[in-house]
Amino acid sequence: RAAAAPGRRERRVAARAVMNPPKVVKPNIKEGKRTKVEELKEQSSYLRYPLIDELITEATNINEGAAQLMKFHGSYQQDDREKRTFGEGKFYQFMMRTRTPSGIVPSRLYLVMDDLADQYGNGTLRLTTRQAFQLHGVLKQDLKTVFSTVIKNMGSTLAACGDVNRNITAPPVPYKTKPEYLHAVEWANHVKDLLAPQGGGYYDVWLDGEKFMTQEVEAPFVKEVREDNSRGINGDDVEPIYGDVYLPRKFKIGVTVPGDNHIDLFTNDLGLITITNAAGELMGFNITAGGGMGNSHRNDETHPRLADILGFVPKERALHAVKAIVCVQRDYGRRDDRKMSRMKYTVERLGLENFIAKVEEYQGFQFEAPAPMAKWEFKNYLGWGEQGDGKLFVGVHVVNGRVRGALKKAVATVVGRYELEVRLTANQDLILCDVDPSWKADIQATLDAAGVADPDSLSPIVLNSIACPALPLCGLAITEAERGLPDVNARLDALLTRMGMKDEGIVIRMTGCPNGCARPYMAELGFVGDGPNTYEIWLGGCPDLTRLAEPYKQKVKLRDFETFFEPLFAFFKSRRKESESFGDFCSRIGFVALREYQKAYVSPPSYSSQPRLAVDSSTFDALKAIAEKEGLTISEAAAKVVTSYSS
């Protein structure tokens, strides 16, 4: 049978609709202990106040209550720690994040974002790990201009942050003749429409109440599902899904096709996997739930988690299932502790079987057994490719998602010249789409002149690594990530080359805090900020992003990386199986063996400084025995003996 995925449940229960099932009896989610954020949401008049009042004050910042509501509108209030002036306090500014399902950005919107970055931001565009833009450095007095400009140019920031469903990810590759990819994009939009906040506060704040038509109108069946209260699960008349207190915490959804794990599907609260027939017609979806990356140092209650497969639903019932899962989280997610409020903890607290039973109660039907799927693989979609309609696409590598300088100018130039659609990837890169073959030479020349590297010329480590922004703007960051990872990658590449493992592909991710925005807990080698220039090391993820890494060592200093990783790489080199990845090796060998080897390891002198020795057969046998006993190569055993003798 085709390979499945983590957490796959062997449910072989035939789907059956329940005839006139009784309506759901919902718990009262406003009873009991609640955080101040919960009270704020309830009193906000559907995300309006005190934000509207705070935006018109002369202060350079907004108060805490307004800052919490601002997240639902797609923005975080930030403090640039490196621009503070002595005696003046914090240097307030705002980060704006867009909502771009599947990472699809029309040429008009891309050029508007590029211009806004220069006029009102810090001159750069940031591509996120969820296929959206972040515009940093916006001042309070410019917020309304920036937001309204985005809305009026085919964009949106609504629900890009906050305790709602956020930007929906899907494979960004523009295949026009592969139906499963087209279905994924189409349904990412349907789910986005289903779960968009309906209260109208967004337009009151940024457009003075005018609902500006930004993109296509939602399909009629989406509205029908959202407003359908036949199960008795709706929130209220204004917000049928969320109610006036919205969700307990952020909610993330991904849609993909079997075998393509570009979007890190199993890290999402909810996932949909397209299932098609032989003719490419959409039959329905395998549904996953319960993933999430959030974590806290030295708090064992918090942890990352992979999603489980709940089962299959026909396409006619897919949105009902999505609505039911979101509403179960709305009603059963914790509202007294935001660190424990994500749906992964709801699944664990209820137990998987009870969670599924509750979802089936809310939706009024049972899941079918999951459909078979192809083996998962991560794809980065860099370089030139064919769309299938006679047009080309080119995936452009962007270092840690920061579009700046010559690269920024080059991309804007070709997007404007040829009116190209842009797609943002979940690996912080971008894809230029709909390229006529006659344009290829000019586009490539423009990219070359800007110093954009050919993907084939970059090491696999560089190509596939990602990092969060971290310092100086993120208020949660405790050390570097985006600015620090390029140097770390170069150092690790140099170390591997010196050890005879040039161009070894290791999936590396770095975050400035344990919240996990760059998904370090899925990496083969994850760096998680644990203090100034200090990281917690996670090992054991896999290249196809279907296994969690595990915490290996706390508080490893940046300056010690070479001495820390050399023993691990040496062990990997000497004991790996054929074609085995570093993450798979760490998972197979286990942390006990890794730590023992690391503790006993003696770094050999460089080969250029080692004397050439001729030994008789008995000495060679003795060296071989030492090597086998201590897990060394014969060269390492010889170096250890020579070093011990000479000292």
| Main sheet: strand order | 1-2-5-4-12
Q: Span between N and C termini?
A: 59 Å
Can you count the helices? 20
Unreliable residue stretches:
1-5, 8-19
Determine the fraction of residues in helical runs and give it as a percent range: 25-40%
Radius of gyration from the CA trace?
Answer: 26 Å
Count the E strands: 19
The chain-level mean pLDDT equals 93
Q: Tell the overall outline.
A: globular
Instruction: Tell me the fraction of residues in β-strands, as a range.
Output: 5-15%
Structural class: alpha+beta
How would you characterize the largest beta sheet? 5 strands, antiparallel
What would you note in describing this structure?
There is one protein chain. This protein is α+β, with helices and mostly antiparallel strands and 647 residues long. Helix content is 33%, strand content 15%. The chain has helices spanning 36-42, 51-55, 64-72, 107-119, 143-151, 179-195, 201-207, 220-227, 315-332, 343-350, 352-363, 405-418, 440-449, 460-464, 485-498, 561-575, 582-589, 591-600, 617-630, 634-646, and strands at residues 75-79, 92-97, 104-105, 125-127, 133-138, 253-256, 270-276, 282-289, 308-314, 383-386, 392-396, 402-403, 422-424, 430-435, 466-467, 508-511, 525-531, 534-539, 550-557. Helix 6 (179-195) crosses helix 8 and helix 16 (561-575) packs across helix 18. It is globular, with a radius of gyration of 26 Å.
